Structures are given as structure tokens and as C-alpha cells.
Amino acid sequence: MANPTGSRSGRVSARFSAKRIEQVLSREGKSRLRPAVELLRQARRYADDLKRSQWDFAVEMSSLRDAGLTAGDLRWLTCNGYVEHAREISRPGDERREFRPGSNLRFTSRSCFVLTKTGAEFAEFVSSDGQRLNRPKNSHTRACSNGQPSTPLPKWNVEHRELQVNEVVVKRFRVPAPNQELILSSFQEEGWPDRIDDPLPPAADIDPKRRLHSAINSLNRNQKTSLVRFHGDGNGSGVYWELIS
Q1: What's the pLDDT tens digit per position in 13-66?
Q2: DSSP assignment of 200-232, as one string?
Q3: What does each C-alpha distance from 140 to 12, 125, 155, 166 come to in angstroms?
């Protein structure tokens, strides 16, 4: 099979939490993981750029070992849902890479690894040395480098179905708008990071990139006070926000 699902047995979490990672990994630990994580991250970029399967660029076990990862590191990454692994069964001369799903947390010299969607967020966190640590959910400002409050953060009031900045209503929903509201709820839950992955669940016969693009455009329309602008990440897999004057 060309695109294995990978091993899911033993997975603890499929949701990225920077706060929890800070409790598990020291600064030295993140530094040690960074070279290997960057290999996985670059492989994902190549696949996205060429619109190919992640498995076409799966990273070999030997490369990750050479970059400093131990078997324990790989098991931890797998259990957290940050990577998936499979055994490559293609032979020299084959036109395409072929894989067989990995067995639990057992790896072989033929094991190859790819970043998951959640893993891509983890990789960005590690590569940036934790600069995008999740903010407290009740925080409504983004701190400057000196620790003083500066940029106000939006707030999504799910009960009143209002998007606010400093108590100013930016947008109010009087009729259901599930896609827009799910995006706002995801930003609120994550503490309004600069970017979130597309939170909209898969739907049959609907192009996810087009649907996300439509939801973003709708978020920017009909604002009572134009204070927040949303835009895509350029490849249809995430959403950014910014304050506007």
C-alpha cells in the first residue's frame, strides 16, 4: 500500500498542547529534538509544495537516528500523535514507494516516519523554541517582550454569539453560521494564537480548501466594527487573524 494509516495503538493524545510540552520537555530537550523534527517538517513542506502524499517523502529511521532521536523519542512522538510510522516494502527500481502500516511501537531499520497535522504544529513549536506557547484562555492581551500587555486579543462569546475586542462588538451572529462559529470557538479555545489549523470536520463532496476559504470570507463580511481580519495560510489548511485599525 502506498499511503498507510500508520500505527495508532497506544496513542495518548492527538491534540497539541504547548503548555503540556513545556512540562515534559526542557529547553535542552527541545534543542535535542530540533534537528530531527526539522527533517520531518521539511519533508512535509516538500509534499505540500508538490501536492503529493506525505508518504512520498517519509523520513527513514536511520536519518532520524543520525539526527539524534532515540527509540524512546520516537515512541513518545508516536503516542502523542505527532508522527505516524510504516515499514517501507518498496525495492530498488520500483516506480513508487510502498509501505506497510507499522506494528504498535516496534520499529525496524525499514521504518519511515511522517508528521501528522498535529505534529506539524508541534514541529513549529519546537523549531521556534516555544515562542508560540499557548496563551491562557482568559487572557485578552498579547504581551510585549518586556511582559507588559500590548495588543488586545479578540474574545468569542459563545453564549451571546459575539466576537469582541476590548468589549467592542466586532460581529454578532443572529442566525446559525456553523463554520464561522467553529473557527472562532477554536481560536478562543487555543487562546488566540496567530494561526490555527482548519478546524472544520470533513464533509462528503465538499472541497475543504474552498469551504475554509468561504468561511474566512464570511468572517470578514458584515462586521459591526471592523477590527479583526482573517485570512488563509496560502495552502488552504489554516487560518490567521490580525487586528486592523
Answers
A1: 455 666 777 778 777 778 888 889 999 999 999 999 899 999 999 999 999 998
A2: PPP-TT--HHHHHHHHHHHHHSS-SS--EEEEE
A3: 30, 21, 7, 8
- Give Cα separations from 52 to 49, 56, 88, 96, 114 (angstroms): 8, 7, 17, 12, 13
Neighbours of 44 (CB within 10 A): 20
- The end-to-end CA distance of the chain, in Å, is 52
- Helix 117-127 to helix 27-50 angle (10° resolution) is 130
| Cα gap 81→233, rounded to integer Å | 23
CA quadruple 103, 59, 190, 8: dihedral, nearest 10: -10
Task: Give residue-wise pLDDT tens across range 101-123.
Answer: 877 888 999 999 999 988 988 88
Determine how β-strand 154-157 pairs with β-strand 149-152.
Answer: unpaired
**What SS3 string covers 1-60?**
CCCCCCCCCCCCCCCCCHHHHHHHCCHHHHHHHHHHHHHHHHHHHHHHHHCCCHHHHCEE
DSSP 194: S
Q: How many residues does the chain have?
A: 245
3-class DSSP state for residue 61? helix
